[in-house]
């Protein structure tokens, strides 16, 4: 997860920020959990999530283009997991060019991992669900976007973003059973983290461009990025102080909700999904939309699709806004809150099946 909006907002005078937020009615909505409906037993989901996060973060560890061995092991782990569920898995090349501030990894190729649940409709559209599997290489500070310091230990990335990949795999498992009218593309991306973020070498940018070219954005329902989804218990947070306006924007300190974050280009899609999530799950959800023109808007792999005018948003626990382990070597598997994480993932699975089943 990268370049959070609130880091940019903090550079603005507080009064200006407040005035802007007040001028944007309905920029944030809180959806209360549905009081009816039965939540399925989460124990199996919880155990699978725990296994995936542990394997990626604690067994494989730091994984990025600067660590070619662990990057490939991560790709193989995701491929094998999806293939074991019955999916046909393909790789999409993501080339790191000679130009750019990439250091020793210039002119190297890494891979997006792709699988598709086929819909039954002859006029099927595509819903894209994605999560990045790379982690941040060592840098001078947790918030830096460069230069890369490969000699330093990078993050093992349990929450950022083994949690998103674990959610993707568990959604894929649940999705494999029931038929849907529309296709669901499941994408695990390379190169979301700095120094690749918002560059042509970002995996989700490569995929978004390929989707816009064929089948075309008119054939896409939307894109949902699964990003840092594992933290829901109260904890000491010093990084939160660097984003004091987060609460004003609709993202309070409390850790008891999941956020659907979008820009103007994806707000209608995000809010309709939040409405439906609230009807399917008792877990609280906040939907927040920020103006496209504000500097720093974008949270994750949704950015590349936003640039192609494909409705997109990020689902997140809000990362550093509630967790000091963000982009640190302390981002390890035992820190995550798996019971709540499992509830969120079950709600997302139900949401995705519902979206893909609508005429």
From TrEMBL:
**Peptidase M28 domain mapped to chain residues:** 112-348
Tell me the domain of life: Bacteria
What this protein is called in its record is Peptidase M28 domain-containing protein
